[in-house]
Amino acid sequence: MSLRLSALQQGRRSMTLLRLHSSQQPSSSSSFTSLRSSFSSSSLTRNRLRPTLTAPRPKKTPGQQSQQSQQVLPPNNTTKESPAVSRILPLNKNHQSFKQQHYDRLKNQDSHQRDQHQRQQYEKNHDGPGFNPWILHLIESRRKVIKAFILGGLVGTAGVGIYHFTKRYKHSTWPQIQADFINIRSSLTGQTSGPSPTPGEHRSFSTGDSPFQSPSLHRYEKQSVRMLSSEQVDERLAQNEKAFRVLTKEKDSKEKNKDEVIVGYCVNQVASNNPIEDDLSRHVIRNQNGGIEKAFFGVFDGHGGWCCSQRVALELAPSVASELEHVKDPHDIMAVMEAIENGFLKLDDKIVNQTVQQVLEFPSRPLACSSLLPAISGSCALMAYIDVKEKDLYVACTGDSRAVLGVRVPSATSTSGHTWKPVPLSFDQTGRNRWEVRRLQEEHPGEENTVVMRGRVLGGLEPTRAFGDARYKWTKEIQERVFQLFPSYRQPHRNYHTPPYVTAKPVVKHHKLRPEDRFLVMATDGLWDKLTNDEVIQLVGDLLDGKTGQEKLVLDREEVKAIKGKLQAIQGVITGKKNEQNEESEELTPANLPPKGPASQIRQFTFKDQSNASTHLVRNALGGGDDDQLAATLSIPSPMSRVYRDDITVTVIFFGQAESKSNFKSDQTTDGFVEIA
After folding, report:
1. Are 372 and 292 in contact (CB under 8 A)?
2. 586-612 pLDDT, tens per residue?
């Protein structure tokens, strides 16, 4: 502004000098030329004077004449059509100066930037755009407290109304609507719907049925974890327990009753998975007089679901029984063992290979879903076959379930006059067993470093023998074709070269029953993870001896292992034979993995369940005399409980002496067997 005023004053002085000079020397053109050159000498002066000289002078009004100063604004160069003309505005008391306007402009710009920053912060806090200026206006209003209170009241009222509506109609109206919809769908499709199967109920897998077609499947909801009371613990442990008295007598008019071989048995199951993946079986073959000739007991530890274990429980004993019919001489132990092996292998071939061939011949996703589930999942199998007439006991094991025989040995140092000795009739077939690792390495030459990794087959499956588990048995071509029909099926392992890697062929042991053989304990690995063989046999033996109360025992793994080694060494010197069972049962602990089985700790055992030995073992495995530990272990719901305990299935079979009858109680009116035709 100072430059413009100075230029204007210089122009006025120049015009005055020009008039004076022209009036004094009107004929002198040279002076006028020199004066014009002086004006053009400065470009700054020329650019600032031209618009001022060319602009018309505004007329003064009487109100404007009293003003002492004027404001000169910059020329308007916004458009090309209009000339650059400076605007001269008067300054009065009510009009702001140019400087004040500039400050107001900066203030408005800062306010706009602040509003934009608040808008960006709102969008950032509310995950995206959608800023509503009305909300900002509501917050910044003077009456924001009142408006917020009204808004909160409306939201609260709506929430209370929705809560009462859902609480009132959730358990009445919606299930009725769902049931009506299911009935309409059933009438249109021609399918009949029934109640959902319970965890202990057997499910059938026919060609057109699927376990996922049940319309009323139970919906599990999140629930708070609460410690069970002692009454709830007892109820939970006794939920699946059963005890049966079995009298294997043949009534003949000429002969007296023969000696009993099987006095009775008891079973129990405690689930960790929901539904439980374990299963069990009890089959029998009777003679014409109704007496028992052959008995089959089985426990089956499923993994990857319950489909395979259930099917094996239903079909394994009939499959073995059909093979035993071809054995002409029951005294031929090798022929009987071979028949048992064939019964295992034929059932596994039916589950794994025959079903997939049917699916590939007639590709159908519903057929694949209903037929291939037992093959895709897996199951260990432990079966005890008892020839009652010959008093022969055969134990066939596929997987890591275990059978231990309780033998009563006379002892002069014991207060009861006898001790209880465990005799293992099976060994765990896992990637931790040296004998199994050596077998797999010999069957797959060139894959010694990959066939067993971290104690598991191909680094994935822990048992080296199992039913199902087609992922370790099918060829790559079959697996790729199954994957197209069954997208949820997993791809083969990276080091999958020479299948099959897993077999269902069992290891069969024979034992001739003697008078000192009192009971046989068959259980899945959920029990053996918590108790040792010696502890299990001692617990059942003390229960038969009538022991009550509680006792403490310090379990030291290394000390027990050293004592066993000394006893086996002495036995080898006496008999002069190498104990092959020791090699098979020796555990190979991979690097960076804890040893399998119970840890060294102080054990508190209790003798509370006098009527059921299976429940007695389960109680002591999960806590025993420590009531808090027992309640806490059972209080953890599925599937979190799988981290702390596995499914446990226990069957205890009692063999026949008269004095052992009083120690076994049974309230069942039936023997609980399923007859094989």
Report:
1. no
2. 666 665 566 777 876 788 899 999 889
> In sequence order, which residues have a C-beta less than 8 Å from that of residue 542 and are 6 or more positions away?
420, 607
- Give the residue with greater pLDDT, 61 vs 395: 395
Q: Is residue 372 scored above 80 in pLDDT? A: yes
Sign of CA dihedral 140, 141, 142, 146: negative
pLDDT band at 675 (very low <50, low <70, confident <90, very high): very high
DSSP secondary structure of 134-203? HHHHHHHSTTHHHHHHHHHHHHHHHHHHHHHHHHHHTTTHHHHHHHHHHHHHHHHHT----PPPPTTS--
Sign of CA dihedral 90, 95, 99, 104: negative
Measure the CA–CA gap between 652 and 521, rounded to whole angstroms.
Answer: 5
Cα dihedral 483, 487, 488, 489, rounded to 10, equals 0
Helices (H), 272-328: 307-324
Mean pLDDT in residue range 647-656: 94
Between the alpha carbon of residue 576 and those of residues 568, 580, 583, the distances in Å are 11, 12, 16
Structure tokens at 583: 């090699």
Which residue type sits at 507? V
- Give the Cβ contact number of residue 286 at 10 Å: 15
- DSSP string of 471-533, one letter each residue: GGTS-HHHHHHHHHH-TTSPPPPTT--S----B-PPEEEEEE--TTEEEEEEE-HHHHTT--H
Burial of residue 298, with CB atoms counted within 10 A of its CB: 0-12 exposed, 13-18 middle, 19 or more buried: buried
Please, are residues 487 and 368 in contact by the beta-carbon 8 Å criterion?
no
Domains by residue range for the chain, with CATH: 2-95 (no CATH), 230-248+263-429+465-494+504-556+600-675 (3.60.40.10)
CB 225 within 8 A of CB 637: yes
Collapsing DSSP to helix, strand or coil, 315 comes out as helix
For residue 485, give Cα distances in angstroms to 208, 356, 362, 366, 488.
16, 11, 11, 9, 9
Amino acid at 381: A
Burial 303-335, CB ≥16 within 10 A → b, else e? bbbbbbbbbbbbbbbbbbbebbeeeeeeeeeee
What is the C-alpha separation between 378 and 429, in angstroms, rounded? 14
pTM of the model: 0.67
Start-to-end C-alpha separation, the chain: 119
Report the candidate in 319, 285, 487, 500 with the shortest Cα–Cα distance to residue 396: 319
How is residue 31 written in tokens?
Answer: 């002076």
- The DSSP output letter for 465 is B
Give dist(CA 578, CA 522) in Å, integer: 26
User: Residue 176 has which token pair?
Assistant: 């009725």
